[in-house]
Amino acid sequence: MEELIEILEELQPDVDYETVDDLVDGRYLDSLTILSLISEIEDAFDVEIPTVEIIPANFNSAAKIWELIERLQEED
Prior knowledge:
single chain; mainly alpha
């Protein structure tokens, strides 16, 4: 999770990722940032995020993103 927070902070440093739970809905992350985030996650955690998983519910908080990563790692 720490590595995920570091990635998020590099892309968007002015957000408290420990508490914010509306990263997409609150417009903290825009579509270009999400695309960059997906690329970083895929490289860092050796997962592939399918297009069907790129929905706001999976990216609204660091915890939800982490759940997605763990689920994808288990499926591998």
